[in-house]
């Protein structure tokens, strides 16, 4: 009899949590279910080609493509979508338990889910075959590695494994994690120098450091084993040049140096594209006339080395980078890039070439046939971010002593991750609303934790 009652007892203990995770995953997948097909983006075709054709993309890492391959179980295109929904819902549940251990998770989790997903449009990114949903999950795994005191070694190994895949999915994710670790080391050393209580065990930072380092090594390894040399990315020279073209610094540099250097771009000094996207993708772009992706490398590398060897241009670029980072902080818009991708698009061409059975469902989807309006979602996101930011400032500065170590730590991790994402993408890529909206949900989530903790502290305080 005892043996017969173990299974029901085990199920009764874990079923509520499983139900909450499934509810969260379903909520995150609702836009795709409504659309009738996983949402796609212009880069989706490259990731699918990596997953099912084994191609190493020129301008993207291979990690997300491999995630699609393994999660799809042989080509079921919906499964990667459900998998990333389950990952976010599961990590969010664990984060709620660690940040608010004294609160009934059945009450706290719906609040957290509503703040993170319902108020920010995050489900539109979770419903997309893109690695954008993983950006915020880097912050969650970093927080859990440092502050989940209930996790044993295999739990930390699981967090580290997930952090590795999130970082391997995109270059910016690796940079965010490594910078968070660097800031964590700096804070730990500062507290040690002041002889104050350490905020976390130093060994846990090592757990967080390893996924970032392994992801970076993976970028080099993939390029090396595929005959592209020992380099992290094959396209850094192109994106950096495009960024310089967008800022106007490239035109200024060419006008100053072309008389002596005779760069391949010199004939186009007066007609350079004013946006990075046009520099790379426009049909008549100088980039396509100066060697394209691989052929342009020797010239571009030499030009960039000379450019960044001049202190005046380094200072000018640093100034523009800071300005772009500040602009990216407030550049928010739900749904940017979620537009129809028809027969000439990369996603359609992939399905036509490799998965023709998916074409009818893809063509029948709402995204294929119409532009979506995100008017009220954009206003809701702006209002949520403004209110969350104000409440976080008031909560942390005015009532910080009432907050637990975990809630304070999560709020700081969320704020730092949001800021790092803005300055990394703004400085190295371009100011683009999608890049910031993908991680915006961290701030309302942190605000939710702060408000719940302050409400609890008020209820605990003795009445006069």
Describe this protein's structure.
The chain has 464 residues and is mainly α. It has helices spanning 2-35, 44-53, 63-71, 79-99, 105-118, 123-126, 134-147, 153-168, 171-193, 202-225, 236-247, 249-261, 276-281, 286-289, 292-295, 297-307, 311-329, 346-354, 359-364, 366-369, 375-399, 405-428, 433-437, 442-460. The N and C termini lie far apart (54 Å). Mean pLDDT is 92; it is low at 1-5.
Order of helices and strands: HHHHHHHHHHHHHHHHHHHHHHHH
Low-confidence stretches: 1-5
Return the average pLDDT rounded to an integer. Answer: 92
Radius of gyration: 24 Å
Strand content: under 5%
Helix-residue proportion: over 70%
- The count of DSSP E runs of length 2 or more, i.e. the number of strands, is 0
The secondary-structure class comes to mainly alpha
Query: What about the largest sheet?
Result: none
Amino- and carboxy-terminal Cα gap: 54 Å
Number of helices: 24
Shape: globular
């Amino acid at each position: 009899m005892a043996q017969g009652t173990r299974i029901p007892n085990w199920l009764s203990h874990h079923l509520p949590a499983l139900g909450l995770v499934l509810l969260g995953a379903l909520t995150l997948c609702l836009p795709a279910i409504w659309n009738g097909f996983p949402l796609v983006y212009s880069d989706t075709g490259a990731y699918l080609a990596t997953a099912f054709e084994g191609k190493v993309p020129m301008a993207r890492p291979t990690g997300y493509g491999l995630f699609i391959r393994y999660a799809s179980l042989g080509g079921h295109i919906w499964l990667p979508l459900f998998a990333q929904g389950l990952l976010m819902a599961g990590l969010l549940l664990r984060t709620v338990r660690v940040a608010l251990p004294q609160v009934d998770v059945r009450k706290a989790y719906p609040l957290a889910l509503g703040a993170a997903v319902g108020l920010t449009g995050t489900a539109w990114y979770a419903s997309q075959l893109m690695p954008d949903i993983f950006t915020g999950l880097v912050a969650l795994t970093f927080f859990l590695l440092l502050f989940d005191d209930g996790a044993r070694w295999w739990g930390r190994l699981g967090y580290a494994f997930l952090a590795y895949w999130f970082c391997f999915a995109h270059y910016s994710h690796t940079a965010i994690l490594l910078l968070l670790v660097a800031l964590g080391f700096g804070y730990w050393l500062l507290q040690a120098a002041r002889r104050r209580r350490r905020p976390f065990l130093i060994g846990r930072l090592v757990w967080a450091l390893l996924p970032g380092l392994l992801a970076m090594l993976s970028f080099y390894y993939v390029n090396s084993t595929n005959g592209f040399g020992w380099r992290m990315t094959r396209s850094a020279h192109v994106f950096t040049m495009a960024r310089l073209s967008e800022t106007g610094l490239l035109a200024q540099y060419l006008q100053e140096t072309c008389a002596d250097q005779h760069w391949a771009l010199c004939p186009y000094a007066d007609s350079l594209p004013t946006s990075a996207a046009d520099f790379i993708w426009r049909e008549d772009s100088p980039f396509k006339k100066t060697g394209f992706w691989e052929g342009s490398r020797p010239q571009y590398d030499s030009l960039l080395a000379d450019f960044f060897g001049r202190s005046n241009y380094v200072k000018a670029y640093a100034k523009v980078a800071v300005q772009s980072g500040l602009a990216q902080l407030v550049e928010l818009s739900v749904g940017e890039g979620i537009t129809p991708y028809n027969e000439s698009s990369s996603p359609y061409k992939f399905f036509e070439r490799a998965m023709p059975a998916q074409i009818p469902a893809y063509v029948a989807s709402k995204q294929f046939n119409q532009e979506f309006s995100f008017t009220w979602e954009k206003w809701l996101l702006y209002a949520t971010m403004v209110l969350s930011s104000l409440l976080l400032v008031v909560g942390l500065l005015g009532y910080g002593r009432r907050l637990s170590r975990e809630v304070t730590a999560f709020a700081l991790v969320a704020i730092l991750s949001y800021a790092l994402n803005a300055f990394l993408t703004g400085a190295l890529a371009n100011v683009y609303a999608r890049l910031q909206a993908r991680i915006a949900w961290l701030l309302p989530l942190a605000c939710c934790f702060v408000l719940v903790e302050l409400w609890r502290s008020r209820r605990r305080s003795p009445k006069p």
